[in-house]
UniProtKB/TrEMBL annotation:
EC top class, as a word: translocase
Domain ABC transporter: 27-265
Protein name: Quaternary amine transport ATP-binding protein
Subunit structure: The complex is probably composed of two ATP-binding proteins, two transmembrane proteins and a solute-binding protein.
Residue spans crossing the bilayer: none
Family recorded in the similarity comment: Belongs to the ABC transporter superfamily.
Membrane topology listed for this record: Peripheral membrane protein
Catalytic reactions on record: a quaternary ammonium(out) + ATP + H2O = a quaternary ammonium(in) + ADP + phosphate + H(+)
Molecular function terms, GO-annotated: ATP binding
Location of the protein in the cell: Cell inner membrane
Superkingdom of the source species: Bacteria
Organism: Pseudotabrizicola sediminis
Listed InterPro entries: AAA+_ATPase, ABC_osmolyte_uptake_ATP-bind, ABC_transporter-like_ATP-bd, ABC_transporter-like_CS, Gly-betaine_transp_ATP-bd, P-loop_NTPase
Length: 338
């Protein structure tokens, strides 16, 4: 699916912690150094970014880079100190508290690292809880909750309690609960980082399966570059509260804008980030040729080439768009450009 128009637009967003932060920010001319000298903490600095409809937009950085603070500013769980945040054209910073409550209940979904399930409620009741808050009648909300439980692969566990579930299952309940209200914009803040590596990878795959069906607009926070390149359409890298580069995983690895980004991506193999779409030669795909989606990486095409294929077909939105040659892949991996 090709991402659509911009759903979320941030312009010069700041979050400064400390007394009289807005006043000092204006007086300091939005200079982070002068703010720090005053004992204030500029946790988010002059962030400009856009999130397109239907894309997975990953925000990443090291611990303390400001990524979680930024995502809370985007939903106004934390009040930004300055800037503009447009959601489908509406400036969220001018919305009343009551309006923001309605937007978060009906148009935004949120999943965090800590599952925050209600321990005295069953899986069904946990998933249905946001719909109960909305005032939806019990039969309708339970039917919707059962749909979401099936979607995340937990059929049969509707009447289990959180303590009876594994960590991965609990996170699936959190995902189902956040989807129950059919959000337009979905925020996920390190949702898999508390899980062991095997379960984490399984849930990443499940997440991609869900996205292929639901086409949500997603802002996903992580500090793990392997996770980011597996999931992201585009990535914003943060350092000291500022966004230092935005691009596709391929852009960041092949064309880092700063030394920080270069170091951040230095160990990432090209085969993991270069997508077949960037190497495709448009044209018909012969019958019987192995095919992969355009967003698949060169690494994912490797088994076909190792099996002797000189070309693989590339598909997008259900139709063939062309082929990728093994020689072009070899050229790329030996130092050529995508």
């Amino acid at each position: 699916m090709t991402p659509g128009p911009d759903t979320l637009i941030c312009r010069n967003v700041w979050k400064v912690f400390g007394a009289r932060a807005a006043e000092h920010l204006a007086a300091a001319g939005q200079d982070a150094g002068r703010l720090a000298a005053l004992g204030l903490v500029p946790a988010v600095r002059a962030v400009d970014l856009t999130v397109r409809r239907g894309e997975i937009f990953v925000i990443m950085g090291l611990s303390g880079s400001g990524k979680s603070t930024l995502v809370r500013c985007l939903s106004r769980l934390i009040e930004p100190t300055a800037g503009e945040i447009l959601f489908n054209g509406q400036n969220l910073l001018t919305a009343s508290d009551a309006e923001m409550t309605q937007i978060r209940r009906h148009r935004m979904g949120m999943v965090f690292q800590h599952f925050a399930l209600l321990p005295h409620m069953t899986v069904l009741d946990n998933v249905a809880f946001p719909l109960e808050v909305q005032g939806m009648p019990r039969p309708a909300r339970e039917a919707r909750a059962e749909e979401m439980i099936t979607l995340v692969g937990l059929s049969g566990r509707e009447h289990a309690y959180p303590r009876q579930l594994s960590g991965g299952q609990q996170q699936r309940v959190g995902i189902a609960r956040s989807l129950a209200a059919e959000p337009e914009l979905w925020f996920l803040d390190e949702p898999f980082s508390a899980l062991d590596p095997l379960i984490r990878r399984e849930l990443q795959g499940e997440f991609m399966r869900l996205q292929s069906r639901l086409h949500k607009t997603i802002v996903f926070i992580t500090h793990d570059f392997d996770e980011a390149i597996r999931l992201a359409d585009r990535i914003a890298i943060m350092k000291d509260g500022a966004v230092v580069q935005v691009g596709t995983p391929q852009d960041l690895v092949l064309n880092p804008a700063t030394d920080y980004v270069r170091e951040f991506t230095r160990a990432v193999p090209k085969a993991k980030v270069v997508r077949l779409a960037s190497l495709v030669t448009p044209g018909p795909v012969p019958e019987g040729m192995p095919c992969l989606p355009a967003r698949a990486t060169v690494a994912e095409a490797g088994p076909s080439f190792l099996s002797g294929a000189a070309h693989v077909g590339v598909t997008e939105d259900g139709g063939a768009i062309g082929t990728v040659a093994r020689d072009d892949v070899i050229r790329l991996l030996l130092g050529g450009e995508a």
